[in-house]
Amino acid sequence: MQEFFKSLNEAIEHGEPFALATVVHVKSSTPRQPGAKMGIHADGTTFGTVGGGLLEKKVIDDALQAIRDGGSLLKDYSLYPQDQGGIGTECGGSTQIFIDVISGADRLLLVGGGHIAQPLAKLGRMLGMSVEVVDDRPEFASPERFPAAVLHRTSIQQTDFSRLVNPRTWVVIISRSHEIDTDALKAVAGLPAAYVGMIGSKRKVRVIMDRLAADGVDKARLEKVFSPIGLDIGAESPEEIAVSIIAEIISIKRKGISECSLCRMNR
Question: pLDDT per residue over 75-96, tens digit each?
Fold first, then answer.
């Protein structure tokens, strides 16, 4: 159980949604007794066990659907052959399993570890968000600059954003160059993030959007990007810009405020 709870703690700290399946009631012959647990990640990998075999496959399938639906469920599994109304096993019993979906914490994913990223990371932590930083420069993606963040010292091309981005991820693209911003936006535009924002002037934003559209990126996805980033509060310093970005994130989270990039550029 020590390894199980270590894996459980890692899943919680990573912030991704996952499911915890627990055997709560059994009847007759079953592979595990009440209290047996299994964790199921959104990619289908697991830790712990509720019995193995066909039962476990059924539980994993149900857990993945529950993660997609965002709701927990209590389910009965009959361990009899299919012609007897069961799942296709010969155990001769039944088990009831509670599948609890753990949504995880909001994640603030900062693409770029520059001067705006530092106050952003501090504000994100104040709001209870986990913070991750992507920057291929070790001197910028350092524990000294981001003491409470998960650091990814990789280029955009080497970063697996599909593993980092989920519906509770707030992506802020604030890298050191237009080229990196373009590559980052192309990588995340089609992913199920809660928010994608990119820093830049209206001209820069239009150039990048036109370039990505010409490269075949779906225009509807690009229109969901918040750029120029942040609420218009007249921010100038890195700290003020960070506040404007966090204010925008809070507005979207609490009020559902939404405005596409093209709307902003045409104002």
Answer: 999 999 999 999 999 888 999 9
Amino acid letter, residue 8: L
- Is there a contact between 246 and 127 (Cβ–Cβ < 8 Å)? yes
Model pTM?
0.66
pLDDT in tens, 182-237: 999 999 998 889 999 999 888 989 999 999 999 989 888 888 899 889 999 999 99
Cα separation, 247 vs 252, whole angstroms: 9
Q: How confident is the model at residue 25 (pLDDT cuts 50, 70, 90)?
A: very high
Note the pLDDT tens digit of each residue in 107-143.
899 999 999 999 999 999 999 898 999 999 999 999 9
Q: Which residues pair with 75 in a beta bridge?
A: 97
Q: Where are the domains of the chain?
A: 2-102, 107-265
At the fourth CATH level, which superfamily is domain 107-265?
A: NAD(P)-binding Rossmann-like Domain (3.40.50.720)
State which amino acid sits at residue 246. Answer: I
